[in-house]
């Protein structure tokens, strides 16, 4: 990211630049996640189709809102948010979602891993932001709360009555999809 010409009062420029980097990473993640969720919405099949199809759309809308909030925070700090498809692909540190048309359980299994990655990254950002910028940290905390709720919605479909997840131990989306089906 280019150097900031200005930032918000009370934040050192170097700190603001790091905060912008953290925000940009989460902007890439939010844009990627809402597109992935929409992909799942369009490609899910099976007996529980309508339940999962309708569960996903509100998640898409909330995560799209996260992207807007993250981009506006970047601009507030004097940065320039990057939201083009090419920037997302170039800037992300994770692989493309790998499941196409599949059953509800397969997609939910894969989404379990997607949410694990997104939430883990948010929590790392929360720790780093504690000293850098509590305003941005509050944003990350609020977004993480919603992501964890959505993750619970996903995991409720993958859990048995003993509380064991079908995807436990899976390390790839394909592995998690197989384990969940």
Automatic annotation (TrEMBL):
Pfam families: Ferritin. PROSITE patterns: DPS_1. InterPro entries: DPS_DNA-bd, DPS_DNA-bd_CS, Ferritin-like, Ferritin-like_SF, Ferritin_DPS_dom. Residues 21-160 form the Ferritin/DPS domain. PANTHER family: DNA PROTECTION DURING STARVATION PROTEIN, GENERAL STRESS PROTEIN 20U. Belongs to the Dps family. This is DNA starvation/stationary phase protection protein. It comes from Nocardioides fonticola. The lineage of its organism: Bacteria, Bacillati, Actinomycetota, Actinomycetes, Propionibacteriales.
